[in-house]
Amino acid sequence: MATTTTRPALLSWTTVAPVAAVVLLALTWGGDPGALVVVVDAVALVGAVLAAVHHAEVVAHRVGEPFGSLVLAVAVTVIEVGLIVTLMASGGPEAASLPRDTVFAAVMITCNGILGLSVLLGALRHDVVVFNREGAGAALATVLTLAVMCLVLPTYTTSVSGPEFSTAQLTFAALASLVLYGAFVVTQTVRHRDFFLPVPVDGSRDDEDEHAEPPSNRTALTSLGLLLVALVAVVGLAKVESPAIEAGVAAIGFPQSFVGVVIALLVLAPETLAAANAARRNRLQTSLNLAFGSAMASIGLTIPAIAVASIWLDGPLLLGLGATQMVLLAVTVVVAVLTVVPGRATRLQGVVHLVLLAGFLFLAVAP
């Protein structure tokens, strides 16, 4: 039973969808797609997202937690960095705030959207969900430190006018981000791996999840390759779709910064679905690993990469948050701490986080 569910058959949709999406990406890249092509790209994008979730779960089953969550978080973020740099290189002065908008959107989507949805889905099915508060607390503390260091401080520094770092400050922030992210990965995977493993709960795993044999190395490597292909397709098709998204945003009168929110939603879709699947199986710790790990990687890898790219990119790099964004971040901090500290949560906490996400999305549309 386990072999048939984890082996990526040659003609299965999970194999065909990423390959077809990449082929479609190659055919439409750099062109001016019409309405029909935009629709086809959107369908291929959805297929690539679903395939990415499947292959991420196969890899996670082989390597175990928390390595499986780490694979998906890092893979998505590395490709997200490439997307940001590409858009900045071709976007001109209007793209100066794109890293800030994208990273902040990723933080709000992961810490409120993925977390809230996972808690709500788990609590609706299991009433109360439990998780390892030591691991969740360590991850949350790292995310918050990175957010303050890279998104809040630029608004208040005085070496350069405007919400941006000086060269020395940006270098320090980039190095600090790498140190924090590296320290967390070592803690998560080596020193205190048990802090990030799902908490055993009676009836939390079905028989298939409990007793299925892990896939073979060959199957896992195949799924890893298809996962990377699917993620490239997701980000690439999101970029192909971005002109249509920008045109749609402008047509309905939304701020251009909302484009970054839309792209962040698309890029984080695989992790959202994977976290939701884990929550329904009462494995909320896996969902938290995905949520906080994605937020952490989004800041800890993106800011250093953008700092290096800024050497040859023209124009300023606006990283500092505005007043409204800071208020949303502060409330998210308080609510997330109150959710994590008890080590257990109900559907109420899930609803609170989702309302915060809704508030962020609404204010992004109507600032």
UniProtKB/TrEMBL annotation:
Domain of life, per UniProt, equals Bacteria
Could you say which residues form the signal peptide? Answer: none
Question: How does this protein sit in the membrane?
Answer: Multi-pass membrane protein
* Keywords of the record: Membrane, Transmembrane, Transmembrane helix
What Pfam families does its record include?
Na_Ca_ex
Where does the protein end up?
Membrane
The Sodium/calcium exchanger membrane region domain, residue ranges:
36-189, 223-364
Segments crossing the lipid bilayer: 9-29, 35-55, 67-91, 103-124, 136-156, 168-187, 220-238, 244-269, 290-313, 319-341, 348-366
Q: What is this protein called?
A: Calcium:proton antiporter
From what organism does this protein derive?
A: Geodermatophilus arenarius
